[in-house]
Amino acid sequence: xxxxxxxxxxxxxxxxxxxxxxxxxxxxxxxxxxxxxxxxxxxxxxxxxxxxxxxxxxxxxxxxxxxxxxxxxxxxxxxxxxxxxxxxxxxxxxxxxxxxxxxxxxxxxxxxxxxxxxxxxxxxxxxxxxxxxxxxxxxxxxxxxxxxxxxxxxxxxxxxxxxxxxxxxxxxxxxxxxxxxxxxxxxxxxxxxxxxxxxxxxxxxxxxxxxxxxxxxxxxxxxxxxxxxxxxxxxxxxxxxxxxxxxxxxxxxxxxxxxxxxxxxxxxxxxxxxxxxxxxxxxxxxxxxxxxxxxxxxxxxxxxxxxxxxxxxxxxxxxxxxx
Length: 323
Hints:
Layout: H1 2-28, E1 37-41, H2 47-56, H3 63-73, E2 82-86, H4 92-101, E3 107-110, H5 117-126, E4 146-149, H6 155-173, H7 186-199, H8 206-219, H9 226-234, H10 245-248, H11 272-279, E5 288-291, E6 297-300, H12 303-320
Antiparallel strand pairs: 1-2, 3-4, 5-6
Helix pairs in contact: 2-3, 7-8, 7-11, 8-11
């Protein structure tokens, strides 16, 4: 009899538990997330609005049940705005926990070093997960880097972070500048760094190129930097052809073949390393450089030696069939 009694109690307990589960499912509804699903909680949304959005998207069976469960056992922490990943099989409690304490999905956009502002603008406008319009940013105002963003974020907000990063880096780097550098202000440093950025693709050469142009500035020589010819023509985009003699002779605020000193503004958005190179250039007497055929340059202080290097470069180009 005792054994039968315990058995009866066990059956009754199981039935009671089943009643609770069934009752809870009836009262709260259920989650219906069959596959990993990205879900957006719009900025400023109430939990009620989110519950109905979940129901509309077929991720829960009942908005009212979800809200009832949240009220009774969901805690009082507010939900976050953003995009969240709901894994397949997640329950109602897991969904609410994700919105309250989970990580927002972050996406990334990269601005390579030496990207001119017209291309920064094009890249931001081409990102379909961003919203709103932006103007072409001021040249030299964006710090090249990788930036994260949320789906639906305003392009103005992302651009503002890029520009704030440049201001922050300059504020940190300028006080650490070497003595007797060739520029007198942060603005001039960015202009010269933009030339250094466009003149060499080799990180190991940046300080040397900065040293060469610093020497020219101090001596009042023309910088004669080819990218300054191109910038007024394309705003920093590739020219796609050889520079014409008429363009070399053109007089404007950027062409350093027809003017002494720095251009009136940057010709691209320089990266941290090019700025650092200008603020601490290599100690060198070099005044001339020419491509060496391997992606780098030959540097010389003497014009005759430079001309020999130029002749070798032209000979190499002829051998390659480039002339």
